[in-house]
Amino acid sequence: MRLETFKWLYQRISTPFILILFFWLIYNAYYIQDFNYETIYIFFKNYLNLFFFVFFIFLILFHTAIEVFHAIDDYFLGTRNEKIIKYVTKVLYTIIFLFILFFIIKFIFL
């Protein structure tokens, strides 16, 4: 299977999961009484909530990364700025990924 086919399949399969998890997050955010530190901390201390939230973020991150790189290929393919734009985009996605990992480690071990 080609990489483009895999990307296409991933986007079609991940979209319903993203929608379901989005509504799950909205539903649970509605029932958090007050958005202070303690209630949000208790929400994320539940490992099921933490898992669903992190899974939701990773799905969105990969889904948007595919679209962003597809748009870069559409608009900047063959230009001299293409490599720079892709490099900056990869660095930004890496930073976001590392922040998410830090968030997970903080809640699991603290």
Put simply, the count of helices is: 4
Instruction: Indicate the CATH architecture.
Output: Up-down Bundle
Report low-confidence residues grouped into runs of 5 or more: none
- Tally of strands: 0
Structural class: mainly alpha
How many domain regions?
A: 1
Mean model confidence by pLDDT? 90
Q: Per CATH, what is the topology? A: 3 helical TM bundles of succinate and fumarate reductases
What string, H for helix and E for strand, traces the elements in order?
Answer: HHHH
Could you tell me the radius of gyration in angstroms? 17 Å
Can you describe this structure in just a few lines?
With 110 residues, the chain is mainly alpha-helical. 87% of the residues lie in helices and 0% in strands.
List keywords for this structure.
single chain, 110 residues, mainly alpha, 3 helical TM bundles of succinate and fumarate reductases, 4 helices, 0% strand, elongated
Care to describe what's here?
- The chain has helices spanning 3-31, 37-45, 47-76, 82-109.
- By secondary structure, it is mostly helical.
- The chain has a single domain (3-109), classed as 3 helical TM bundles of succinate and fumarate reductases (Up-down Bundle).
- The longest helix is centred in the middle third of the chain and has 30 residues, at 47-76.
- The chain is elongated and about 50 Å long.
- The relative contact order is 0.10.
How is this fold's topology laid out?
Layout: H1 3-31, H2 37-45, H3 47-76, H4 82-109
Helix pairs in contact: 1-3, 3-4
